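Most newcomers find our protein records easier to grasp once they have seen one. A learned vocabulary of local backbone shapes supplies the integers on the structure line. An example says more than a description, so a record of this kind follows:
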Amino acid sequence: MDFQISHSLPGRVRIRYERHLLSLRQAMLVQMLVGMQEGILSASVNTVSGSILIEYKDIPLEEVLSYIKALNGKYLNDENLLSSVTVPAVQESLFGTLLSMTVGHFAKKLLPFPIRKLLSLWTIVPRVKNGIKILLAGKPFCAETLDATAISLSFLTGDIDTASSINFLLDIGEELEDYTKRKSYDNLTQSLLITDETVDIIQDGEEKKISSQLLKAGDIVIVRAGSVVPADGTVSDGTGMVNQASMTGESLPVQKEKGDSVFASTILEEGELKIKVKACGGETKVSKIANMIDRSNSLKAESQKKAERVADSLIKYNFLIAGLAYFVTRNFTKAASTLLVDYSCAMKLSAPICVLSAMRDCARNGILAKGGKFLEDFAQADTIVFDKTGTLTESNPVVKEVLVFGNRDENEVLKLAACLEEHFPHSLARAVVNEASKRNLNHKEEHTKVEYILAHGIASSLDGKKLRIGSAHFIFEDEKIPLPKEAEECIKANTDCSQLYFAIDGELAAIILIEDPIRKESAEVIQKLKSSGFKNIIMITGDNKNTAKKVAEKTGVTEFLAEALPDTKLSRIEKLKSEGHKVVMVGDGINDSPALSAATVGIAMGNSSSIASETADIILPDDGLDSLPVLRKISRNLISRINGNNSAIVGINSALIAGGLAGAITPQAAALLHNSSTVAISLKSMGSLE
């Protein structure tokens, strides 16, 4: 890397580099790589002035400079390294940039005419060359050829000042548009990403401060109250209250203790945590969200693509109107005015900014959308299909009731059952163990070795008595336990629950009824979805019909399909699509993945399986069913804003063209008003869609 020393003091050196040779991301990579080297205390890059300030200790200046010299294209163009750095918000002042452009433009007017003419030619040539290049590439009708034609006409007719002024105003407009687009993206990413800061880590048994960009997997970070969690990881020690609003949209802090996961950009409000780093830099969950948003530009909403197609199709009419204007009036000024006003710039700028704004609002609510296309499809969908377990109901089953027989004590029976079930990790076993824990029933391991019969139950013994717990088939058929008449009636009355049967020494001791509690927000969410225009709200589950019917009645779904296998879900989705419906599928398990993939829009719950999350087009926050109405509102407002912007763009620019034809607007004024309206509409597009 080429540089020169600006000034040097013992332990401190400032060097300068050519700003145009390094992108902002490359400059930040230089800062990170130099800061990692042995003996370097700190490295700070100023991308505005093109300088790097380095503080060092116990190494010679020549070694410091060798670190800079070693940074060639091999490192500075490495995509993996570049993706690992955090790019700060735009550092250059918009006001300063526009002021320097304005001063430069008007200063040229003080020069003698021959020099002014040469300078004007020098400034307009790049724009004209670009127009010719695009024309030769087979794209005669675009904004660049319009601008090049207008400037060339003005210059060739001797109106140098007009050509120079038009070029200046176009430069101003492009700078404003570029700033608006960068600002929109920066607002989104910076609302998610933490900036470079110093963090405390434990290294060789001692606490040490380093840059957050130097963290690596396996490091132990100390985070204290009021600090931002710098990386994804697991709490290794301590207890604290973490505000996860930036990730999940939760307004209240969540308690975190040993073994819990934490995420970068969340804030520790109370306590102190030691966190073992799992992922940092570009690998954190929040960085992946920002990168996905960046990549999502390729997944444009259809209304966005339509706006771009319409904009491109209208440009040929600018040329036609300009030709007719000159043919009728023989006035180059009127012809040039119509060429400087087009619909393309504003439509192509405002639509992606609208999409970025929608994705920003989704991210603020903990929703991850993988592209604007899916937001639009969700806005237009008329059918939504839900999985039951883990989606409309809680993912962890709970004990509803313990029905005991033979005058036995309910708590004693539950304690024995939990003593057996704690050895096995399936969901029904966890429900039994959790219920015993909730009742403060401590169960000592006094039984003999337990034997697990796959898909049937558990066998053991205590004080010479045989203990059996499991399915009806295991208890009544395999173990030949008699079924009391009163138990038979209980079974028939509770077909909407899963049932565990517990036998002691050959007698049925209890039936443990286990249910998937319906999420408290399910009914309200479904009602809101109906109000938002969903005509068909369907639940598909593998559970029995009685359970499915109960959940359907309590939640308000319009239709349900019970005892369904994964391929049944898939077939139903495909059938609905073949009937002309736009179908949304919401699920959380591996068995939902085929249906998520087949749906118009697949939506996964935040705590879903990895394959479901990968397959889905949109991911909700953990337990975020109530974010669906928010997503519907954002996506619908997105389409309304794009369409509203397009109407305003056509109206404003048509008025400017009419003004130019009437001679009421000069080419300079046309360029200024056109660019100003473009920026104004783009700034409006950055507003919230919630």
Notes: The radius of gyration is 33 Å. The domain at 368-394+519-620 is CATH 3.40.50.1000 (Rossmann fold). The CA atoms of residues 89 and 669 lie 33 Å apart.
